[in-house]
Amino acid sequence: MQHTVPKVRHINNPKLETIKPGYKGNKLINNRFVNGDEYYAPDFSNVLRWKLSGNPQKEEKKGDNYSPPLIRNKDFIHAEEDMIVWLGHASFFVRVQGVTFLIDPILYDLPLIKRKVDLPCQPEDLKNIDFLLLSHAHRDHLDLKSIRAVCKNNPQLKALVPLCAGSLVRNASKHLPYQEAGWYQRYDLVPEHLEVYFVPASHWHRRGLFDMNKVLWGGFIIKTKEQTIYFAGDTGFNGHFDEIAEVFGPLDICIMPVGAYKPAFMMQRSHLNPHEAVRAYNQLRGGTFIPMHYGTFDLSDEPASEPVRLLEQIAAAGLMSGLQLPAIGEPLLLRNLV
């Protein structure tokens, strides 16, 4: 029996600087991206197992009405101070040295899943945005309707995206300028006083029937002389946290996913639970810890308030420092963050 040898290659954006010494670019096996060196695609038989197995915390979850606190606020959009504002789920407004970033904006309900808590402002209020950052193409991070709304009100907008995400950007807007990057590459569209890098995450891609792992996934580093901000994207626990710390040093502000982690047999390789997120934050030698990816949409089996309760317990036990639990719409001023 003849075995076909898998086709292996490495790619990046040849026009961009790669800052990790000796890094060849993102590995593809048979034209599909991998985590580090290994190909990973979720076993969708686990979805059936999930539906049939039942949730041992079903009653607890049913009685848990937690949703993140909300401050209805649009003043941050026009303020001058540098800040981070959580917009719910994994969506953030970030202003750094006067440059504004919108990360993974989900401004509406998801298909078949309604938001549990509103945006702090109306989608059309989000103006004067310089850069749209998209960590990966899952529908709870890259939403075409949301991107179109942001583009409509921000003609100056530019997008910073992963390798092979350009066609999705074009589906959202025919005229939105974008730049693709691989892991450890520095985008060159941003002003000289800022550095923005695309960095590894341990995840996967799928939007349709035939595009498994055809688009890269990752996180972002936004760096100034004063502070380094890390947005982890969606990720499971893997060796990339140590690697990121080795390349970038201590990370002053870590925006970490802490939700959608149960059942573990289905979620563990895609998402972090709170204990794993804190472990990763400690590997990153993090300063401020800002959690995300919880409370806005019901995506998994854990009770809604569990991620916050666990983080507070971990912090109280002295196993982390710098925990911030902002309300949706609450500005965290960068000058006040470690």
UniProtKB/TrEMBL annotation:
It comes from the Bacteria. InterPro entries: Metallo-B-lactamas, RibonucZ/Hydroxyglut_hydro. Residues 101-294 form the Metallo-beta-lactamase domain. One of its GO terms (cellular component) is cytoplasm. PANTHER family: N-ACYL-PHOSPHATIDYLETHANOLAMINE-HYDROLYZING PHOSPHOLIPASE D (PTHR15032). This is Metallo-beta-lactamase domain-containing protein.
